Amino acid sequence: MQVGRCVGQLSDQPLDPGQRVSVGRCGEPCGRIPLALSIAAANITNHPLGSIADHIKDLLDGNRLTALQIPGDSDSTMQTVLGQSYDALDPAARRMFRRLGLFPGPDFTVAAAAVLADVSRAEAGRLVDRLLDAHLIGESAADRFALHDLTRLYAQARAEAEDSAPDRETARGRLTDWYLERTLAAQALAFPGYARGSGAQYSPCAGFATPAEALAWFDTEIPNLIAALHDDPIGAHTWRTADGLRPYFATHINVGEWIDAANAAIKAAERVGDAEARFCGWYSLAHAYMSVSDYPKAMSAFKTALSIARAIDHHHGIDGCENFIAQILIFTGRLDEAAGRLESVTATAPAGPERLQHGGRPLAARRGALRAGPPGRLAAGAVRGPGPGHPVRRPPSGAVRPGQPGHREARPGRRGGSRHAVRPGPRPPPGVR
Fold it and tell me: Which of 191, 215, 256, 264 is the most exposed place for a label (fewest CB within 10 A)?
């Protein structure tokens, strides 16, 4: 059912092409729920055709649940229909529904629902089944569930009305804490050579059986992890989670998501006033730009990270930034400047192999390669290998690499095994069909 078709049936005045485009934009904000589409069509028909664009704008920008009602007909509103389904639930299922309205990502698992509601997985599975039966959620893929946009808005409204702000924040904090622990566990198994900047630890109970399982979890959960980075009520979780995601981004070259995660980490670090966290965010952002050879932005980010590292006397951070700044100078043909930077670093660095060596090669040797080596071999010989804390750019032995048989891309419907038959998507509540 399309809004344009409904409008055409209800109005004896034809729509011009521009109006048809405006009307067609109603599909998404209505969640493509038949009742919502019918209400929107009726309201559009009752407006002069010249104001259709304004009505669509109000629907897109305002409170959609309030807008999707027919004046004078209290029974034909989305809030009324959703409220009838909600009121029929038992208290535990209503509480679960409200908690799911707080979930930041596009879909969720029973495990995530259990964390949000602070119940056992068995109890969460029972409550999820109850919400499925009430058509308030749908199964988006095997063992993964989702709310329509409109039902999510209703769940959020019920949570704000019935749960205190501290209770809501506590539930969100549990979820971000859980995602941090799972991220660090998956990173430790899939990328064991990665030097994590945050130093955060994880519980063994959050572990995965194999590197392939850990990588598959990243593939599936990345949209939720990115959403959680922007929904962290604590702030300290954000940069640590983003730091744990760095090796995955580096090996899968998800540059847009990598940049998004790094910027979220920087904002969170500034919010909590943590200088080391700010360093990790800028260092990650620099590597994201460097991975796609955007050297001007990478250079700017590395220099910002370097200034922070110097301010907090972060020796490994200083050396890492200098190392990659020298790489950029070499790649852009500024060989004398690169040699000068390396000479400056080796002249001022304290003695000791831990400080003077990067990626298995002393900085002094790299400086010498710049001064003595033929120009055609400088980039390969003078500066190479990851500096301290730089993401390892390959999966560990035994991990399934992209492009190899058995590697699974992140896409809906690829998860195996389910307690339920996979349904085409969230079903509308009774009376909404």
Answer: 256
